[in-house]
Amino acid sequence: MIAEVGVQRIRERQWELQDRVFEHADRLGLDVRTPPERRARGGVVNVRVGPEAERICHALLTRDVCTDFRGDGLRISPHFFTDEDDVDRCFAELGRLV
Hints:
Elements: H1 2-5, H2 7-28, E1 45-48, H3 53-62, E2 68-70, E3 73-76, H4 84-97
Helix pairs in contact: 2-4
């Protein structure tokens, strides 16, 4: 599937979805620790949610939103199989928890 879609297109799609993560985080007033420059990013966007990051991560999982956490940051990893609705729903649920 990766060969069919193409690595560059997959990476561009990740950047598009990551940009959406940045926009949602900004609307919620959350600090994004991942560099804003596309080419400086990896596959994960780290959003600071505070000392309750583990609780928030587990609460999201009960709502069928899969993220991870490290310290006080929530790790959001959109990929080419993710769509805008997935990112929007992640932040709709996150907005109820922060």
